Amino acid sequence: MARVVVDVMLKPEILDPQGQAVQRALPRLGFEGVSDVRQGKRFELEVDGPVDDAALARIHDLAESFLANTVIEDFTVKVEEMVGEEK
Amino acid sequence: MTARIGVVTFPGSLDDRDTQRAIRLAGAEPVALWHKDKDLKQVDAVVLPGGFSYGDYLRAGAISRFSPVMESVIEQAKSGMPVLGICNGFQILTEAHLLPGAMLGNNHLHFICRDQKLRVENADTAWTVDYDAGQEIHIPLKNMDGRYVADEHTLDELEAEGRVVFRYRDFNPNGSLRDIAGISNAAGNVVGLMPHPEHAVEPLVGSGRTDGLPFFTSILKKLVNA
Asked: Name one Pfam family in it (chain A) (predicted).
């Protein structure tokens, strides 16, 4: 088993009012020096079997067609760790 | 003869019954369609109603877009069947790429519910022939994710081809680019908008106006004269 992480972020040119609301709250919490916040989504996929190139290609297709809407979002796919394997 | 107009019910649809009623009031026959059923029951047109299908999980419309009924709707829409998406239905149509662009959360981050003034920009689509171009109408608007976005090139193309069908007037309720409230595909058979014409079809309820009824008489006229 392996964990594959898909991170989805709004494209830079798309307004992110949620991120802006978070950013504006920071000074009230005494946290200075953060000029911008953008909020995204993280998907952790626990994948059975080997994560080879073919499996990654399928996950890439899944991310492109479903997990992200590429009209407004960018995404990255990365293999994070092997789960439950002896070191 | 009359026209048979399908209304899809997804898990989380809210306005399917109101839409059926609006179709009946306009003189057409509403046909209930089910999200799990690919069979469109030989309807002449389809309405995707408002609501929060699949809880708006992932993105509004993102999961519904892959439901069995949408396979048939997408296929038929591409061969010219009229399709109207209202609110969540509009979101599903953009997720299905039957309409360009995408819907995002309102720029003020609040749910909004109000009587909204719109200008009809295109009275030639299958769903708007009973309006006059430039006519101003009031119909209810109620949504969380109503901010229409698309890249500049797409927006220019929509404007140049007359595919901005409705524009918000006086007040932009959600930050939609270029005040866009509704658009159509290039052929004009697929239309999506955020406000709810099905809630403005009887003088006794809602805003007391019937400004939404021409959506449903338009499609009836279009289908019966076809």
From this structure: PurS
